[in-house]
Amino acid sequence: MLRIGVRNLWRSKLRLALVAALIGAPFFLLLVMQSIGDAVQRQTETLKENVNNTLQLRARGSMGHVNMVGNEDILPQDALAKVKGVRHVSRVESYLLAMTPTEGNNFAMVVGVDPGDTRRLESHGEAGNPKLLHGRDLTDDDRGKRIAIIGQGVAKWAGIKPEDVVRATLTLDLRRTHPVIFALDRTPVTLTVVGIYASGYVFGDMQIFMPFDSFREAYGVPEGISWLYVRADSADNLPAVEKELRTLVGDVADIISPTTVAEFQTTATAAVQRLANAGIALSAVLMVLVVFFVMLLVVRERGWEIGTLKALGAADSGIVASFLTEAVLLCAVGALAGTLLFGLWGGRLAQLVFGLGVAPFLPAHYSTLAGSLSLAPQFGGAMLGMLIAACLFAALAGSAWGIRQIVKLSPMEAIRHE
Questions:
Q1: Comparison of pLDDT for 169 and 399, the residue scoring more
Q2: Residues 395-401: what's their mean pLDDT?
Q3: Integer distance in angstroms from the first to the last C-alpha of the chain?
Q4: I need a labelling partner for 119 at 20 to 30 A (CA). Which of 29, 136, 175, 225 fits?
Q5: How many other C-beta atoms lie within 10 A of the C-beta of residue 64?
């Protein structure tokens, strides 16, 4: 009976192709929603790794921006040596920050960073190293050079297109003022744009990263530091590190435990996971509906065959096994079709689905999140297990009514017209 079920799959090649397409579509949707949920979860886990054992230091009572009204105080240079000498500190990253006006009362952040250090975002400092969309990152050879990588928001404001990277320049006029920015008596700074990034945050996309030494020269800051990010060798040792830091530099520094990852997890991650789960549930319902109608049609179409098999003594269990085999194989063919489509266009279509079906439900400041996520298909054992489970579920749930009809059908009723 199992062999009969396998052979029956090929009885109508046209129907097989149509059903594979109909079942493949919800399988594709399932894979897309799963990839979106996994991408956001990976982003969250990455943030946790950078946050759970990290502290931020900045000048007491100041934001640490060298040209921000009332917040221009920065950490003394010797704070760096003190911090590096603390036990259980595995890494210290230094940053210098300034602000530059854009249109209206808006502004962009200028960040001096050492190549190789985390490119941190002003409003989401722990959410570092945003995704590079075009061009390249800063390297050790760039130290002291007037180059920069910019957020896609800055690129849009400045009219810099992806194809302009490496040739385009951006000029910072340090004499320009703003309600929260005071002028500096410094000559304008022209930077060559070598890369454009996406952060996933509207504010995060309005930043300009330049080499740390270049920032010192351009803004006339020979010493001092805006931010120090201190990473402990483990989350367990973070309280001891914080205690010693308060003893060493507590008189000149505010010591802050970043919390934005918790905000990201409770807003963006939770919202995306809910929508992804809803999409997966919808996919499962669509699969079951397709299998239900197909198997109902098959049972009615083959009523005479079922009656004949019963008249010859075939057990209901054997006939049911034959039809379930056909249903599982139909789902498997649909899953294969959906997986092939996902492998070919999954990344691009996932971006489209995210933009149309997920982004409108996120807080406004996460509206650019799709561009910062890696939504490329990732095949592995977990995905294979999910596909097998989905095939079995759809086949069993969708065939339940058809199986009931098979069991109820009597041989006399099935062949009464013969």
A1: 169
A2: 88
A3: 24
A4: 175
A5: 25
